[in-house]
Write a structure and sequence with these properties.
- This protein is mostly helical and about 160 residues long.
- It has 2 domains: about 80 residues, Rna Polymerase Sigma Factor, Chain: A, CATH 1.10.1740; about 70 residues, Winged helix-like DNA-binding domain superfamily/Winged helix DNA-binding domain (Arc Repressor Mutant, subunit A), CATH 1.10.10.
- It is about 75% helix and about 0% strand.
- The chain is elongated and about 60 Å long.
- Pfam families: Sigma70_r2, Sigma70_r4_2.
- GO terms for molecular function: DNA binding; sigma factor activity.
- InterPro entries: RNA_pol_sigma-70-like, RNA_pol_sigma-70_dom, RNA_pol_sigma70_r2, RNA_pol_sigma70_r4_t2, RNA_pol_sigma_r2, RNA_pol_sigma_r3/r4-like, WH-like_DNA-bd_sf.
- Keywords: DNA-binding, Sigma factor, Transcription, Transcription regulation.
Length: about 160
């Protein structure tokens, strides 16, 4: 498959497919660009053995790009909603207690083993998936998931006691 002619040959087809999914011209254009970017990055994974048409392969990439966009928008909307629901408090006592809870959490988390603490921070503060965490620390996705769960359980059960 010649990379240079892919967009000229299939661009309109993919755009119309995405337009049918999104019903929005501008979004379909943006997703079409992302689709071809992803296709060029992974063109070596397409095997022209006649079982899957190239246009079908492009549509599957387009659909994944669209689903990722939907998920991204959902998360963005949830954040906007949570921020709009957030009420500003002027109660200094509540602010102090909230800070104390945060300090206590980090004191307890600091008492975890290095691996558990790292997994906890990557998941909660880095908002990374278990697959990404496993990749970072050189372990499996399942290992990261189990280690995170065990760290949470230690914190929840109060197994770790902070000694000042």
């Amino acid at each position: 498959m010649n990379k240079d002619n892919i967009y000229q040959e299939y661009g309109d087809f993919v755009f119309r497919y995405l337009l049918a999914l999104t019903n929005k011209h501008q979004i379909a254009e943006e997703l079409t660009q992302e689709t071809f970017y992803q296709a060029i990055k992974s063109i070596n994974k397409f095997h022209d053995d006649g079982t899957v048409k190239f246009s079908t392969w492009l549509c599957s990439i387009a659909k994944n790009v669209w689903l990722q966009e939907l998920n991204h928008n959902k998360k963005r909307n949830q954040l906007v909603e949570s921020l709009s629901d957030f009420k500003v408090t002027t109660n200094l006592e509540e602010d102090y207690l909230r800070k104390e809870d945060k300090v206590n959490f980090f004191k307890q988390a600091h008492q975890l083993s290095d691996k558990k603490r790292e997994i906890l921070y990557l998941r909660l503060l880095g908002d990374l998936s278990f697959k990404e965490i496993g990749s970072i620390v050189g372990e499996t996705e399942n290992w990261a998931r189990v280690t995170f769960y065990r760290a949470k359980e230690e914190l929840r059960k109060g197994v770790i006691r902070y000694e000042p």
